[in-house]
Design a protein that fits this description.
The protein is of the alpha/beta class. The protein folds into two domains: 127 residues, Rossmann fold (3-Layer(aba) Sandwich); 135 residues, NAD(P)-binding Rossmann-like Domain (Rossmann fold), CATH 3.40.50. It contains ten helices and twelve strands. The strands form two sheets. The chain has a six-stranded mixed β-sheet with strand order 2-1-3-5-6-4, with helices on both faces. The chain starts with a strand and ends with a helix. 2'-monophosphoadenosine-5'-diphosphate binds next to helix 6.
């Protein structure tokens, strides 16, 4: 019997997750299938129910269903609760278990693949939407020295910062303008501005010497990445995070951790 998995989203046609999971399955000799499924915008729960009835073991969930996935589940991991959203569902006899591997994915990419230890560093998280919320807690767990959340709409960044009760990291929220004169070692763009090729109104001062500028988007060079490069930063896109969050989900489902380096290189060549 082949164990069946899928990724659900809308849109979903361009998802690289089926390729990534097929590569992991081959490498670890797991007998499983993994496909991309388009759910109607108002039909996430119905789609999941149909998959459960067909014997699927679990699904990954992408935009715009990560909040709906969290709501649908009847058990939640701590990291799903921290994000208030789920990208990994496991179907068990007891019901639907929600997890979120996005934060673990970005932390592993930054620390393990890109070689930037986060502990003690000055970290800037740009954006205060779902993507930023999803990685905030896992970032804090790596114990940065300071963490600044900056967003075009500063109230949303402030709300995120207010929710945090963390004695180890100094967390604050600020406007893009207030970033002037500040410098950071790790800068993460969690906004969707790159989708529309929009530049962020952020000052060049934020890019400290030897800093890492990380865009959670992949597949194109965003204006943020260009600005970072022009200011001497080491630049990374979100492809590593994509592969690492997939590896973490695969590990949750199959109890075996796949190697990611070769898969990352293969996906980048596509
Ligand atoms: P996601 O799930 O991708 O995080 P979202 O919840 O809609 O999507 O959040 C989008 C984020 O990108 C927000 O932080 C948004 O800023 P606002 O809160 O001010 O809307 C940010 N964003 C999108 N386009 C932007 C732009 N052109 N300049 C600055 N920030 C932008």
């Amino acid at each position: 019997m082949t164990d069946k998995y899928a990724v659900i989203g809308h849109p979903i046609a361009h998802s690289k997750s089926p390729l990534i999971h097929a590569a992991f399955a081959k490498q670890t000799q797991q007998v499983m299938s993994y496909e991309a499924i388009l759910a109607p915008l108002d039909g996430f729960a119905v789609t999941v129910q149909a998959l459960i009835e067909q014997g699927y073991k679990g699904v990954n969930v992408t935009v715009p269903f990560k909040f709906a996935a969290f709501e649908l589940a009847n058990q939640h991991s701590e990291r799903a609760i921290a994000a208030g959203a789920a990208n990994t569902l496991t179907f068990s006899p007891q019901g639907i278990v929600a997890d979120n591997t996005d934060g673990a994915g970005i932390v592993r990419d930054i620390e393990h693949n890109l070689g930037h230890r986060i502990a003690g560093k000055r970290v800037l998280l740009i954006g205060a939407g779902g993507a930023a919320e999803g990685v905030l807690q896992p970032l804090l767990e790596t114990k940065p020295g300071t963490l600044v959340i900056s967003n075009r709409t500063v109230d949303k960044a402030q709300r995120m910062a207010n929710k945090i009760n963390n004695p180890l990291t100094h967390v604050q929220a600020c406007t893009f303008k207030a970033l002037q004169g500040q410098a950071f070692d790790i800068i993460i763009n969690a906004t969707s501005a790159g989708l529309s090729d929009s530049a962020l109104a952020i000052p060049n001062s934020i890019f400290a010497k030897n800093c890492l500028a990380y865009d959670m988007m992949y597949g194109r060079e965003t204006p943020f990445m260009r600005q970072a490069k022009n200011n001497g930063a080491q630049v990374a896109d979100g492809l590593g995070m994509l592969v690492e969050q997939a590896a973490e989900a695969f590990t949750v489902w199959r109890s075996v951790r796949p190697e990611t380096q070769a898969v990352m290189q293969d996906i980048r060549k596509l």
